[in-house]
Structure formats: C-alpha cells, structure tokens
Amino acid sequence: MDIVLLVKAAIMGVVEGLTEFLPISSTGHLILAGALLGFEGEKAKVFDIAIQTGAIFAVILVYWQKIRSTVVELPTSAHARRFALNVFIGFLPAVVLALAFGKLIQAHLFTPMVVATTFILGGFVILWAERRPNAVVRVHSVDDMTPMDALKVGLAQCLAMVPGTSRSGATIIGGMLLGLSRKAATDFSFFLAMPTLIGAGVYSLYKQRHLLTTADIPMFAVGLLFSFISAWFCVRWLLRYISSNSFVPFAWYRIVFGIIVLVTAWTGVIAWHGE
Length: 275
Prior knowledge:
The radius of gyration is 18 Å and the shape is globular. The mean pLDDT is about 90. It has about 280 residues and is an all-alpha fold. The two termini are about 25 Å apart. The longest helix has about 30 residues, at about 80-110. About 75% of the residues lie in helices and about 0% in strands.
C-alpha cells in the first residue's frame, strides 16, 4: 500500500472525526480536504461514509455507561424502553427519506452554491437560536424527552441530507428550537448519530462493494482509526464546552467557511463535482 495514500487516509480520518459532531458539516470539509489532497473518485466517496463508523465508535465509548444501562434494563424498566423507543423514532425519518429521495438529492443538490448557501444560512440560524429572547427550555435531559420530541428532532435531522447543513447542527439546533436544553439536544444528537451513521456506513459499503478489494483494507483501517481518535477528543471537548458556552463561534465559522466555498468554486481553486 502506498504510504502517501495512507497519510491521506489519516488526514481525511482526522477531518471526519473533528467535524462530524460539531455543527459545521463534515461533508463540506471532507469535500474540500479531498480536493486539496487529490483524494477523490467513487471509492473516496465510499471511504468518506465508511469512516463515519470510526467516529461513532468514539461516541459509543464516551456514552458507554448510558448505553449499557439502557440495554441491561430494557426487559424490566419502562424508562429504558422509552429512551430506546425515542432513539428509534428519531432515527426513522432519516431512513425513510434517504431511501425515497437519497439519489435525487445527491444528483441535484451537491453543488457549491447549495453547500455554501446551507453553510451560511445555517450559521445565521444558529445565531438566531442562541440569541432568542425569553427562550423556554422544556426538556433538560434526554431522559425527559417524549416520543413527539424525538420525532421532531428526527425530522430536523432529515434537513442534513442537503449538503452543508450538518447532521449535528440540524439535530442540536433543531432540538434547542423545540425546547431542549443545549445539553439535552447535544446528547440526543449523539445518540441519533449511532444508528444513523453506522447504518449509512454499512449500507454504502454493501452497495459499493464492487469498487473495493482486499488491497483497500489498510486505507480504510487507517481512516477508521484516525477518525475514532480525533472524534473521541472532539466529543469529550464539546461536552465540556457546552456546559458554559454557546454555539455562536460555530455560527460565524460556518458563515466564513461558506464564503470560502463560494470563492474556491468561482476561482476554480477547488473543482467541485456533483454526484
């Protein structure tokens, strides 16, 4: 295996791990990083989706106690069953929408204008969500969520199918707008990510298995490893950060990044290709 390719895989893994769970869209960053590194093509697209699994394992590790207690208590605890049901309800809309419209969205919305617009608009939505006067918080913990709360956040997650929106941004900010505390919205976003991203990774690998050979195993292994490590640090940092800070800095970052996307597209510095 080419050492240069492994280095590129490691860099892409770090980009994925650092951006997947922040409200800044990992997709846009992976596109730019891949273009700058010359890491593109159909196999690279499969790689980008597959390494999300590494990031998810980091979340599973961070939340292991909650996951373990929920699984153990499922047969005897109505509380555990309600939490598991909420995660399933929140996960379901994205599955239905992806199966129904996934190809159409990839074919028509994967353009620099769409990515830049969603980056910038998302930034302004975050600014508005964080600066609303008299914002009412109804739900302070994921354990206090109702199935209707889960469904609404799940519908918000569907917005992330539009490139540049950010799955984490849609679920966290959507949750806050629906009355969840910043901590509850962030926690539930992480729990929703587990089935969503694992499912997407497994489905992509199965669907595109004809593109892959055993020679690709080292590349994928490196990407998964670096995605896991960087996501672990990122998730732990984010949980500390939100305890006393807002998402406003991420909003301004999105706006600036959206402008960069436009500039790179207009000047031809980065060649943006549709699906």
